[in-house]
Write a structure and sequence with these properties.
The chain is mainly α. It has two domains: 69 residues, PSPTO4464-like domains (Diphtheria Toxin Repressor, domain 2), CATH 1.10.60; 66 residues, Diphtheria Toxin Repressor, domain 2. Helix content is 78%, strand content 0%. It contains nine helices and no strands. Helix 4 packs antiparallel against helix 5 and helix 8 runs antiparallel to helix 9. The longest helix has 35 residues. It is elongated. The mean pLDDT is 89.
């Protein structure tokens, strides 16, 4: 009798219907996140071939009803794999993307400050990044201001952004 009680304690209680639905919703949401990744990011995952091809196929579906059904199918395929490593890799990718966005925002702020504040912002930039080409940056700033005043396309502003991205920051 003691052995029977011991065996019963090791068996986890069955999941409730609500918990099963919640788990299925989480897997479907994870599958939807996978469908939003580009091919290079998706290649980083070790997915079964059927799931990988279903995700690629989902990216080509445009009709709402068909996409919803296909997402259900992806969720069903995801039940057979461990979602934890997939979620960790997705979190890593999203954190990297957030860092890239923050860097681009910083570059845009510097470009705008250089164009609007001129020499004061340039002096500050050169204090932080002394190896920058002062003369070239000044030339780009003057051209960007001229283009802005003449309501021309911001060609020099783009060049300044590119220079800051590639050479300075």
């Amino acid at each position: 009798m003691i052995e029977a009680n011991h065996i019963e304690e090791e068996i986890p209680p069955p999941k409730s219907k609500t918990q099963l639905k919640h788990d299925a919703d989480n897997l479907r949401a994870l599958g939807k996140t996978l469908t939003e990744l580009n091919k290079e990011e998706l290649a980083r995952f070790d997915l079964p071939d059927t799931l990988h091809s279903a995700i690629i196929e989902m990216q080509n579906i445009r009709q709402r009803g068909a996409a919803k059904r296909h997402l259900q199918y992806i969720g069903k395929l995801m039940r057979h794999i461990d979602p934890e490593p997939i979620q960790k890799l997705i979190d890593t990718i999203q954190k990297h993307d957030a860092g890239d966005k923050a860097q681009l925002h910083k570059l845009e702020q510097w470009r705008d400050r250089l164009i609007n504040e001129g020499d004061r912002a340039l002096s500050e930039l050169l204090t932080i990044y002394p190896d920058s080409d002062r003369q070239y940056i000044r030339q780009l700033i003057r051209s960007a201001i001229r283009e802005k005043q003449q309501e021309k396309p911001p060609k020099s502003s783009r060049k300044l952004f590119k220079y800051l991205r590639d050479e300075v920051l």
